[in-house]
């Protein structure tokens, strides 16, 4: 691992193989790329931190990760074409010259995959600590501070739920800009909570993986996160029979490949993504032999049977929808079981939720008012109120003197739906009492075989 | 008897055609002895050996090491001890030759040696412990298994085309109880090490281990794993066969086994390669063994940018057994004899056996569900983080500040440290409620599993709600009968009049 080791035959780390030439004069001109297309992106100096550190003089310009959020233009990592950031964002950060998929930040990925306005982030307040009191060339606490300020994230993953073309999914997206996407305790905890939540609600889980490996500054705790996430996935996939899709983006190495990256029921990778377990240099030094150019790329793994699909980014959202649609319509779909209780802890929001539900319950009536239950400020009406209002309306309770319809006769819904004049007013009434939601909830409850859902959910 | 009878009948019926056939087949007059078939991993130079000699060659693999020439390595910090031992030997030899009575001075020397040994080994630095954990004479997995079990049979193969010599699997019984034993095997000399790939398994080794773990799950054998590896092998074929995937599947499937798993780290535990057979109900670690997420050399190369900082990396990574137990990652330390397991392996084996049996006795009385939950909970609790929004990772200050503030409340009265936090909590709960509506709309995509009774709702709420329901029903009936004003609502949620 000495940076100045004798160069492996045919390839010097830190330099691309015969470089793609886009001369300065052609910068504004044609997008035609001269040079080999099949250059392994891992040889790009921008992705080679050790070699870059070893030779700071020559790699100074391209050693730092290009900050694409600022500025007007950037270069493609692979072919060096000038790319305008505005155009890049429109085209999902794909280089128009060589179709190389550049790195996207986690928020951009979420906007790409999740329908607008439906993203609900989870556990944003989890932050890392320094359990080992680690300091290499810099204190770990300083590194955390720096990374948090640079990216605005608390740690290297964003988790949450949202709709993907209408499908409720639990999505976790890792971010390479935060310490190289390294997996520490916070990443492990956030992903585990996400998977447990999805298991409890019956949602599919999608995790977009990108990582340099386990975070060494957190020592053995990073290693245990691999086991923790895999345990949650065992309950999700094997016990609850739910879907987990892993999307591997470039680069995905180390501990992530050896745990949840390769555990997807369906594993999708982006084209030309670097996915592997051990680093390329380590393997070259162990074997002292030349590795093929496309070693550890997505296409290579596809050939060797480790991936299901290689999907370009522009098709990704549609492909995910279609895949999940197959599983929704499975004829022999089986309802799974959560085998043991992992009680969710009391988090920041629990007290607020309990208080709100309580306020609503005490306001909405303890079954004392015979009126149709009118929904309070909160959109979530309690089950009790809905049942009482539904029964009042349908069964035509004789004692419901407060009913605005005034009729004591039992209501025939079919008749009502056929009647064009009475329908609007009835709909108005229904909106007030949220009957249509009752009907939907009734369906949902009927589909579940367990008992009533209660107002207080400790979540 | 019935069976025998039917057999003879069958043979009688078939005898005639068989006899007829026998007459027609031409047979060579000379009986050719079929060549004895040797197992596929027999070393090439032994092909001419047959019979009892062949048995001897196979069994020699389990015997003491033949070439002991340069075999005992002494570590740097052990050199003073070695000097003292040599001195004692010299004195004894001189005494024998000259017939002088030196028992007093020998006793004194031995006392000093013992004192020095105790001092050295009770104050090992992490670097020294790492050296001891990697000592070439340290007992390997097979050494331990063969010395703690009454009977042991080694089984092979991943049933998919390959076997891996770096992982040893088999069934052995300790004090009459059979266990499935799985472990990483290092070699005792260079030749063996090459054969065993220095204890670095390939994907087929992990798949072999998984196969045997499933086998043990099927038949109800508790599993004991011995972890002693520098890490998973990093090679081209290993990557192509799916090294990452093999480890990941092991990690996932180990949480589905209904039998207790006990893992003993006997040497070094290298990252994912060790964890793939180390997701256990209890993790035992020998006193001088280590467990790391990345080898100190690799860590130094990446974080300190030079391999020479390996010593610093070893100190910083906190890989020793005491630290791991403090963190809660390992559960028990198996003590080693004075001088390390390499200096007195015979004394080390009973300690390992004792620890394993003590731990196993706790699991012998648990049910399957409890065992699975125990394993899940053990790993679920690992990880250090904090739940505040803390810029810069300075959690101590943030915690102190938070404890000191009087704080505000949200609109409904939930406590929050600052106004901003109160708004944030409200925002979060609004988002949650909005999400629940969205989820209800997309209900056809969900497949909500059956939940155990305690998950998501507490038992006490069931009781409370049923009582409230009963009260309401009674009130409704009372309302129907009397057509009177509704009863006054209780100010809190508890049932006031349970007897009504």
TrEMBL record, chain A:
Organism taxonomic ancestry: Eukaryota, Viridiplantae, Chlorophyta, core chlorophytes, Chlorophyceae
UniProt-listed PANTHER family: ACETYL-COENZYME A CARBOXYLASE CARBOXYL TRANSFERASE SUBUNIT BETA, CHLOROPLASTIC
Annotated InterPro entries: AcCoA_carboxyl_beta (IPR034733), Acetyl_CoA_COase_Trfase_b_su (IPR000438), ClpP/crotonase-like_dom_sf (IPR029045), COA_CT_N (IPR011762)
Record's protein name: CoA carboxyltransferase N-terminal domain-containing protein
UniProt cross-references to PROSITE patterns, sorted A to Z: COA_CT_NTER
Subunit structure of this chain's protein: Acetyl-CoA carboxylase is a heterohexamer composed of biotin carboxyl carrier protein, biotin carboxylase and 2 subunits each of ACCase subunit alpha and ACCase plastid-coded subunit beta (accD).
HAMAP family noted in UniProt: AcetylCoA_CT_beta
Species whose genome carries this gene: Chlamydomonas incerta
GO cellular component terms attached to this protein's record: acetyl-CoA carboxylase complex
CoA carboxyltransferase N-terminal domain residues: 72-342
Example of a GO biological process term: malonyl-CoA biosynthetic process
UniProt keywords, alphabetically: Transferase
UniProt GO MF annotations: acetyl-CoA carboxylase activity; transferase activity
TrEMBL record, chain B:
InterPro entries: Acetyl_CoA_COase_a_su, ClpP/crotonase-like_dom_sf, COA_CT_C
Domain of life of the organism encoding this protein: Eukaryota
SUPFAM superfamilies linked to this entry: ClpP/crotonase
Bias type Polar residues, positions: 489-500
Biased composition (Low complexity): 15-27
Pathway: Lipid metabolism; malonyl-CoA biosynthesis; malonyl-CoA from acetyl-CoA: step 1/1
Disordered as annotated region, ranges: 15-47, 471-500
Keyword Lipid biosynthesis: yes
Keyword field: ATP-binding, Fatty acid biosynthesis, Fatty acid metabolism, Lipid biosynthesis, Lipid metabolism, Nucleotide-binding, Transferase
GO molecular function, one term: ATP binding
GO biological processes: fatty acid biosynthetic process; malonyl-CoA biosynthetic process
EC nos: 2.1.3.15
A GO cellular component entry from the record: acetyl-CoA carboxylase complex
Domain CoA carboxyltransferase C-terminal: 108-362
Pfam families: ACCA
Reaction(s) catalysed by this chain's protein: N(6)-carboxybiotinyl-L-lysyl-[protein] + acetyl-CoA = N(6)-biotinyl-L-lysyl-[protein] + malonyl-CoA
Gene3D superfamilies xref list: 2-enoyl-CoA Hydratase, Chain A, domain 1
Record-given protein name: acetyl-CoA carboxytransferase
């Amino acid at each position: 691992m000495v940076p100045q080791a004798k160069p492996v035959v045919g390839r010097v780390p830190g330099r691309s193989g015969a470089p793609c030439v886009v001369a300065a004069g052609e910068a504004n001109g044609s997008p035609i790329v001269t040079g080999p297309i099949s250059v392994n992106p891992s040889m790009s100096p921008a992705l080679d931190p050790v070699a870059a550190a070893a030779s700071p003089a020559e790699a100074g310009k391209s050693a730092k990760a290009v900050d694409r959020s600022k500025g007007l233009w950037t270069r493609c990592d692979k072919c060096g074409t000038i790319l305008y950031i505005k155009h890049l964002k429109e085209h999902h950060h794909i280089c128009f010259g060589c179709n190389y998929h550049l790195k996207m930040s986690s928020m951009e990925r979420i906007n790409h995959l999740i329908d607008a306005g439906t993203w609900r982030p989870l556990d944003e307040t989890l932050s890392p600590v320094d359990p080992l009191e680690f300091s290499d060339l810099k204190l770990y606490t300083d590194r955390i501070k720096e990374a948090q300020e640079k990216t605005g994230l608390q740690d290297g993953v964003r988790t949450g739920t949202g709709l993907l073309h209408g499908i409720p999914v639990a999505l976790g997206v890792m971010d390479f800009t935060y310490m190289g996407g390294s997996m520490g305790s916070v990443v492990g905890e956030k992903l585990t909570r996400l998977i447990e939540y999805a298991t409890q609600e019956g949602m599919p889980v999608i995790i977009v993986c990108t990582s340099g490996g386990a975070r060494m500054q957190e020592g053995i705790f990073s290693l245990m996160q691999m086991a923790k996430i895999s345990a949650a996935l065992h309950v999700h996939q094997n016990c609850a029979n739910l879907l987990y899709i892993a999307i591997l983006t470039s680069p995905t190495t180390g501990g992530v490949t050896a745990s949840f990256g390769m555990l997807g029921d369906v594993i999708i990778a982006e084209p030309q993504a670097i996915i592997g377990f051990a680093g390329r240099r380590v393997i070259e030094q162990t074997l002292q032999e030349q590795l093929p150019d496309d070693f550890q790329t997505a296409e290579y793994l596809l050939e060797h049977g480790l991936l299901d699909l290689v999907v370009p980014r522009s098709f990704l959202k549609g492909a995910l929808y279609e895949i999940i649609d197959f599983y929704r319509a499975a004829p022999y779909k089986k309802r799974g079981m959560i085998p043991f209780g992992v009680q969710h802890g009391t988090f920041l929001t629990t007290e607020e939720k309990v208080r709100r539900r309580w306020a609503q319950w005490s306001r909405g009536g303890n079954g004392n008012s015979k009126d149709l239950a009118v929904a309070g400020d909160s959109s979530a009406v309690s089950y009790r109120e809905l049942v009482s209002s539904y029964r009042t309306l349908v069964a035509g309770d004789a004692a419901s003197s407060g009913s605005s319809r005034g009729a004591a006769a039992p209501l025939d819904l079919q008749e009502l739906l056929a009647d064009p004049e009475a329908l609007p007013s009835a709909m108005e009434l229904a909106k007030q009492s949220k009957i249509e939601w009752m009907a939907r909830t009734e369906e949902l409850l009927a589909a579940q075989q367990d008992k009533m859902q209660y107002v207080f959910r400790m979540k | 008897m019935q069976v025998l009878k039917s057999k003879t009948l069958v043979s009688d019926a078939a005898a005639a055609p068989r006899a007829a056939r026998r007459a027609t087949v031409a047979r060579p007059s000379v009986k050719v002895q079929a060549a004895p078939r040797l197992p596929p991993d027999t070393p090439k130079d032994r092909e001419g050996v047959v019979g009892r000699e062949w048995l001897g060659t196979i069994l020699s693999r389990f015997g003491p090491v033949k070439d002991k020439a340069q075999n005992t390595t002494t570590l740097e910090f052990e050199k003073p001890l070695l000097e003292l031992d040599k001195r004692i030997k010299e004195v004894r030899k001189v005494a024998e030759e000259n017939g002088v009575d030196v028992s007093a001075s020998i006793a004194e020397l031995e006392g000093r040696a013992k004192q020095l040994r105790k001092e050295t080994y009770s104050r090992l630095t992490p670097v020294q412990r790492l050296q001891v954990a990697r000592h070439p004479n340290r007992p390997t997995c097979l050494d331990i298994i063969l010395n703690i079990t009454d009977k042991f049979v080694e089984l092979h193969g991943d049933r998919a085309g390959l076997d891996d010599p770096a992982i040893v699997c088999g069934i052995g019984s300790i004090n009459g109880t059979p266990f499935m034993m799985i472990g990483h095997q290092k070699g005792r000399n260079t030749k063996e090490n090459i054969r065993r790939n220095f204890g670095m398994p390939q994907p087929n080794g992990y798949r072999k281990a998984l196969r045997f773990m499933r086998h043990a799950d099927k038949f109800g054998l508790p599993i004991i794993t011995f972890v002693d590896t520098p890490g998973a092998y990093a090679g081209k074929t290993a990557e192509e066969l799916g090294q990452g995937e093999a480890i990941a599947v092991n990690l996932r499937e180990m949480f589905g086994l209904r039998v207790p798993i006990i893992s003993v780290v006997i040497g070094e535990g290298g990252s994912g390669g060790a964890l793939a057979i180390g997701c256990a109900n209890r993790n035992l670690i020998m006193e001088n063994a280590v467990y790391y997420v990345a080898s100190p050399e690799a860590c130094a190369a990446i974080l300190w940018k030079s391999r020479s900082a390996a010593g610093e990396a070893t100190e910083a990574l906190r890989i020793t057994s005491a630290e791991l137990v403090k963190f809660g990652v390992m559960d028990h330390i198996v003590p080693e004899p004075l001088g390390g397991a390499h200096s007195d392996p015979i004394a080390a084996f009973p300690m390992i056996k004792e620890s394993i049996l003590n731990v196993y006795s706790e699991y012998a009385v648990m049910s399957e569900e409890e065992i699975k939950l125990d394993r899940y909970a053990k790993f679920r609790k690992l990880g250090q983080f904090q739940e505040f929004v803390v810029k810069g990772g300075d959690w101590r200050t943030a915690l102190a500040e938070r404890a000191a503030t009087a704080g505000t409340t949200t609109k409904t009265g939930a406590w929050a440290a600052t106004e901003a936090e109160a708004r944030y909590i409200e925002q979060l709960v609004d988002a949650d409620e909005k999400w629940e509506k969205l989820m209800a709309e997309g209900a056809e995509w969900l497949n909500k599993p059956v939940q155990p009774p305690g998950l998501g709702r507490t038992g006490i709420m069931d009781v409370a709600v049923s009582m409230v329901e009963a009260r309401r029903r009674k009130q409704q009936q009372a309302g129907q009968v009397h057509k009177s004003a509704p009863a006054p609502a209780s100010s809190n949620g508890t049932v006031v009049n349970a007897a009504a």
